[in-house]
Amino acid sequence: MKMPGELAEAFNEQISMELASSTAYLQMSAYFEAQNLTGMASWMRMQSEEEREHAIRFFEFVVDRGNTVRVGGLDAPQAEFANPEQVFETALEQEQAVTKAIHDLYRLATDHGDLGSFPFLQSFIQEQNEEEATVETILERVRLAGNESSAILLLDSELGTRT
Ligand SMILES: [Fe+2]
Ligand SMILES: [Fe+2]
């Protein structure tokens, strides 16, 4: 069953937001490559791919519901960062913004009584809990490492093991 227009539009905006997230993480990967922190760079590229998968899951959901997909334009993401801590701070803010958007989407689906989108959105609400927790832990560990390059390099190796 088709979603009401307003809800379909909000789902379309979420596709763009996930793509924007993907692009932002890719740019963060480029920052870490330039710093020779190749483990963090690789972690960011995987995160970028994960966000693209989220966009595709939203895309397929909109198509399955019989609504039309419109992919929006993307602004260039932030490219300059003072240090790794600032990168992960930005990543956390981004995840929090996505969480808020998905919560808003869920509230909108509730307003429209669109039961068909509840399970899908609930899986993303859970996904966001995990995403925020993961980024928050890394941010705290980057803060613990501070300016000690040996600690940063160790964390870099650890993040580089993500598969
Ligand atoms: Fe996402
Ligand atoms: Fe995410």
Chart the SSEs and their pairings.
Blueprint: H1 5-34, H2 38-64, H3 84-111, H4 118-145, H5 149-159
Description:
The protein is 76% helix and 0% strand. By secondary structure, the protein is mainly alpha-helical. It has one domain (5-159): Up-down Bundle (Ferritin), CATH 1.20.1260.10. Helix 1 (5-34) packs antiparallel against helix 2 (38-64), helix 3 runs antiparallel to helix 4 and helix 4 (118-145) runs antiparallel to helix 5 (149-159). The longest helix is centred in the first third of the chain and has 30 residues, at 5-34. It is elongated. The model has no long low-confidence stretch (mean pLDDT 98). One fe (ii) ion binds next to helix 1 and helix 2.
> What's the β-strand tally?
0
DSSP strand content: under 5%
Number of domains: 1
Rounded radius of gyration (Å)? 17 Å
What's the overall average pLDDT, rounded?
Answer: 98
